[in-house]
Design brief:
Catalytic activity: (6S)-5,6,7,8-tetrahydrofolate + NADP(+) = 7,8-dihydrofolate + NADPH + H(+)
Pfam families: DHFR_1
Order of helices and strands: EEHEHEEHEHEEEE
Low-confidence stretches: none
Number of helices: 4
Pathway: Cofactor biosynthesis; tetrahydrofolate biosynthesis; 5,6,7,8-tetrahydrofolate from 7,8-dihydrofolate: step 1/1
Number of domains: 1
Strand content: 35-45%
Organism: Flavobacterium geliluteum
InterPro entries: DHFR, DHFR-like_dom_sf, DHFR_dom
Length: 160
Amino acid sequence: MIIMIAAVATNNALGKNNELVWHLPNDFKRFKELTSYHHIIMGRKTFESFPKPLPNRTHIVITRQKNYNPEGCIVVDSLEKAIALCPENEDSYIIGGGEIYNLGMTYTDIIEITRVHHEFDADTFFPVINDEDWLLVESEPNFKDDKHLYDYTYETYIRR
């Protein structure tokens, strides 16, 4: 199954200047739990936003740049090629960025969203989740605390 996973603000903001504009430790923990030991698909800029490859995951990086070959990663030039490299009977995750999320909506079976209940100034946005195409099947609210500046909700959508 192809699963799209993202942390998304109320105004669909993803980030600015290739960085997240919030810090939610529980969301990082959830991301790690869901994606570990799976294939993760991302654009080059998303990959380059990490200090190093994420442990216990197979990284597939999409780029148009020739001779781009970061150590420990599979590099392809299209989302279709990335998906073709994922095991058919296992979950694989599309993890960003904005352009890859837009392209990935067609191929995605499930969307895992952490909805950050705040609007942010951003330059990258998540595509609109159309209620005609997607059904919200799970919603788990979480509230701000000493480690989380914003309320947030884990949302799971399945394709109708």
